[in-house]
User: Fold Exosome complex component RRP43 from Tychaedon coryphoeus.
Amino acid sequence: LSICSRTVEPLEYYRRFLKENCRPDGRELGEFRTTTVNIGKCLCSITTADGSALVKLGNTTVICGVKAELAAPAVDSANKGYIVPNVELPSLCAERFRSGPPGEEAQAASQFIADVIENSQMIVKEDLCIANGKLAWVLYCDIICLDYDGNLLDASVFALLAALKNVHLPLVTINEETGLSEVNLKQKNPLVIRKHPVATSFAIFDDTLLIVDPTAEEEDLATGTVTIVTDEEGRLCSVHKPGGSPLTGAKLQDCITRAITRHKEVKKLIDKVIKSITPK
Assistant:
């Protein structure tokens, strides 16, 4: 298989590998790239954030910083706080992205993350309320892609979950005499994470063949993609399929089964890293 054929006829080049049930990077069709996570105030994370994490999925690198601020609850949601996710794809992460306002892919990713937070109930907004109708927490979750090589959604959900598990919020009370909020930085409690959603993405080749954790090149050549989000109970939180090849019920079920297995691997990795950084 010559390098020339990969440049001139990339799809045919891939098909030759796929017929042998492998990929040009040496992976099997159902094999994920090496996954690593770095949590907390370390050299690779955002030291000014209230929680941070860096996730590498092969060559795709995503960092998430969570900043907590105080605000008044919305009038129609007096007992709820806010979660504001934002995904950034700066021009430095890949040639395909341009400087300026968020592009379509970044906006779609931000909406996907917002849907995952809502559908999975990973954080219940009532838990962010400090005083009904008076004060609540706002969690700004900034997810920035540092290096893009496909499968942004899996890496983003993983980084978000890891960063949120790193957040500790100070005790806040409202002084009844003055009506002002008082923040006790010496008494901090971990953020309550109700569910642990994990995303698993697949690329569809020639309408029938499924491969997991696609690279940017594989996404470009695929006839469709699908992302399955599950929680630790094996519950389906979200199915994200932006057009492309249709999936049969059997293929979709296969994706869900694989996603449940992947969830266990990711959860195990997060727990291991958190255990290593927790003071004994």
